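Consider this one:
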Amino acid sequence: MEKRVKIISQSELRTNNWTNSKGENVVISSVQLEMSDGNDAFVAEVTDQKAIAINNEPLSKEAEYAVQLKMVVRSWESEQTHQKGKSTTIKVLNIAKI
């Protein structure tokens, strides 16, 4: 999905570490962007090198951006309550100032 948006807010860089199934240490960096297309406001996640770049040079709240997004739907089940649900994450694939 592609949209023209303005940035409302930008989170600090977050870093998560874990060990994958091969026993390798994996580090994921991310920044959360709250943005609006003029009708709707939503939060999308930027990861890895793009997140580090955005953290080092924050996006302008005054500028308009062209953003390419991907929605990821994940099913989950609580280990404690066995409640089931779905969550949607919006990922930023590309972002460029217009």
Observations:
- The two ends are 17 Å apart (CA to CA).
- The first strand starts at residue 2 and ends at 10.
- The domain at 2-97 is CATH 2.40.50 (OB fold (Dihydrolipoamide Acetyltransferase, E2P)).
